[in-house]
Structures are given as structure tokens and as C-alpha cells.
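Need a sequence for this fold. Nothing fancy.
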């Protein structure tokens, strides 16, 4: 790929005697927002820490703008990292936090002043530089952390689950903030998360890892609409797995392998459906979840609006054949 800024080539990461992710190949385009998404323990953070040089690669190469970094120490990679909780020095002001790496590198005072002021202005925190982290909002601390990573000239920033301790509302605004800064400042982002909403809302490309290997690489829509494996289908969004006889009945054709249908694709009140008993209705605000029993099988549907069926009643249930995701995998 011509405009690839970062290239992971057969990268194998882990600990002495333990391979965590094997043979990872990824080309990251300049200015892209790439998320590494996967369940806890799948190796996302280990990949990120290896790219940053905080741990050695077990095999393969990490190439940044054509330069092989694999054996370089972190300070010579020119890659920034934003940690969970931002890891700002609490006793230092925002200015001192941002200036830290430049001071360690013994840059002239005037240059440090200029570079910190420039990056702080770009990140919208020029008026916060005298404050210590404890007296800044979470969003301001996040900007300081990003400014601190960019001030050394890094064009690639790694984010290690920076949103994981936030409540849903703050998390949503921080996502927008990171995305806005990334667009405005033009850096390339590699963002580790186990949260599908983080990945779907921010990423140009999502790399889904599972048990040490890549399940699928694609944009959010592709992963959601065209999941390559049953794992992706179950991991992103809410899906029902259909037993083969029920799948055949609902989809009107014999089904080989595992089949899934998303909750929002289960149609209730269809004119030509099959009867389903309503077991439970859960009002969740924007939508409701309806748990049903159809021919002895449990199935859930998602309904928007207030016209909800009563528990115990029978409704007509149908599924558009094209809405089903079928995988040529042995039924579990
Ligand atoms: N020091 C270690 N020695 C051996 N294995 C380790 C060590 N530290 C972590 N692991 C294992 O490496 C695997 C990957 O851990 P990692 O933190 O990269 O996962 P993750 O996907 O980032 O998970 P989480 O979202 O929970 O942080 C896990 O199975 C973990 O048990």
C-alpha cells in the first residue's frame, strides 16, 4: 500500500514462552484511525505495547514510514502512547507534562516554550497550561495527554483503552473529542478497546482479534453487515443463533452450518409468520427487548416504539431470508 505509514509484518507478540498474538499483518494508512478490538485477554494491549517498544517482538517486523523499528527502544521510535487514565504526572502542570520529553532530550528552553505553546494551541488547552491535572476536567487531561504525545513530533499515536473507566455520557463526548483532535491534528491513531461502540464510532478500520489471531479487518459497517465469522457476528451487535431446523423453517430453505439473525431483524406482527409466545418484555428506553419462544427455541427481538406485545401473548414472527448470517461452521 503506497500511503501506508505503519506496517506490521508477520508480527508475533507475547511473553517469554507465551505467544499472545501470532503472525499479525496490518498496513495502516497515513491519517487513519484504526481500532484493535477484541475480548479481554485477546492480546490487544500486548500488540500495542510491542508497537510502542515497551516489550520486544517475538517475531516479525514493525515498519514506520519505511524504517524498521523492531529493535529500537521506545524513545527512538517516534510513536506516542496515551494510557488509560492518561498517566499524567500529578505534581507537574500541564505545561511541564507536555514539555517533559523535550526537557529529557535537553532541547533549548526557547524551543521547548515554542513547541509546547504550539501544540497546546492546536489541542485547545493554551489557557490551561498552568494547571495541574487534578484541577482539570477529564477532557482537558485527555488533551494534555495527546499534546504530550504529539509535542515530540510523533505522527502515530497509540491509545490504550483511554475511555474504559468513564460513564456512558462522558465516554461518548470523549470519543468525539479524540476523533475531532485526530482529524484536526492529522495524526494516525491505533486505538485499543474491548468496547464495540468505541470501535464503531471512531474507526476507519477495525481489526478484530480473538484468541491470538485476526478474525476480520474492515470498516464498522462491513463488520456489522458482513461478518466473516460467527465470532464477529456474535461479538458485534446482538444476535440470535438459530438451530438448523428453526433456521430452515424461518428462512424457507435447508441451512448447513451455523446461522444467526440480529435482534433488530426479527420481525414481529408479520402477515406471514410463524407463531411465537412472548416470554418477557424489557423496556430499555430507545428500544425494547422482547424475549420469545418459537417452536421450543428462545429468540430475542428488538422493537422501537411503545406498541409492545404483552407477555404471554402469541405474535407472528418472520425473518427476511437475506437478513440471516450463515457460516459454514459445525454447529456447536
Ligand atoms: N507477564 C505475562 N506473562 C505471560 N502472559 C501474560 C503476561 N501478562 C499478560 N499475559 C497474558 O497475555 C494475554 C494478553 O493480554 P493483554 O493484556 O494483551 O490482553 P488484552 O486483549 O489487552 O486484554 P484486556 O482488554 O483485558 O486488557 C492474556 O491472556 C494474559 O493473560
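Here you go.
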Amino acid at each position: 500500500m503506497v500511503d501506508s505509514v505503519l506496517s506490521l509484518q508477520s508480527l508475533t507478540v507475547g511473553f517469554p514462552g507465551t505467544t499472545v498474538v501470532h503472525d499479525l499483518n496490518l498496513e495502516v494508512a497515513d491519517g487513519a484511525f484504526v481500532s484493535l478490538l477484541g475480548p479481554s485477554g485477546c492480546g490487544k494491549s500486548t500488540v500495542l505495547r510491542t508497537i510502542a517498544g515497551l516489550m520486544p517482538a517475538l517475531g516479525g517486523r514493525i515498519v514506520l514510514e519505511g524504517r524498521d523499528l523492531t529493535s529500537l527502544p521506545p524513545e527512538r521510535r517516534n510513536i506516542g502512547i496515551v494510557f488509560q487514565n492518561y498517566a499524567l504526572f500529578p505534581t507537574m502542570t500541564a505545561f511541564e507534562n507536555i514539555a517533559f520529553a523535550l526537557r529529557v532530550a535537553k532541547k533549548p528552553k526557547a524551543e521547548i516554550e515554542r513547541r509546547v505553546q504550539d501544540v497546546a494551541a492546536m489541542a485547545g488547552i493554551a489557557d490551561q497550561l498552568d494547571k495541574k491535572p487534578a484541577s482539570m476536567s477529564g477532557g482537558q487531561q485527555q488533551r494534555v495527554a495527546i499534546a504530550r504525545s504529539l509535542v515530540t513530533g510523533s505522527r502515530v499515536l497509540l491509545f490504550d483503552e483511554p475511555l474504559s473507566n468513564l460513564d456512558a455520557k462522558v465516554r461518548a463526548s470523549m470519543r468525539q473529542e479524540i476523533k475531532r483532535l485526530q482529524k484536526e491534528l492529522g495524526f494516525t491513531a491505533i486505538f485499543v478497546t474491548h468496547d464495540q461502540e468505541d470501535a464503531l464510532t471512531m474507526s476507519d478500520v477495525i481489526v478484530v482479534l480473538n484468541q491470538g489471531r485476526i478474525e476480520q479487518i474492515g470498516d464498522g459497517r462491513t463488520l456489522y453487515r458482513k461478518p466473516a465469522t460467527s465470532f464477529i457476528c456474535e461479538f458485534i451487535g446482538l444476535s440470535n443463533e438459530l438451530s438448523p431446523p428453526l433456521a430452515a423453517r424461518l428462512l424457507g430453505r435447508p441451512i448447513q452450518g451455523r446461522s444467526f439473525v440480529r435482534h433488530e431483524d426479527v420481525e414481529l406482527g408479520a402477515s406471514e409468520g410463524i407463531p411465537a409466545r412472548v416470554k418477557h418484555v424489557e423496556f430499555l428506553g430507545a428500544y425494547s427487548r422482547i424475549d420469545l419462544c418459537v417452536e421450543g427455541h428462545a429468540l430475542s427481538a428488538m422493537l422501537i416504539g411503545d406498541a409492545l406485545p404483552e407477555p404471554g401473548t402469541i405474535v407472528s414472527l418472520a425473518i427476511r431470508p437475506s437478513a440471516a448470517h450463515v457460516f459454514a461452521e459445525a454447529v456447536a
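For context: The chain has a mean pLDDT of 91.
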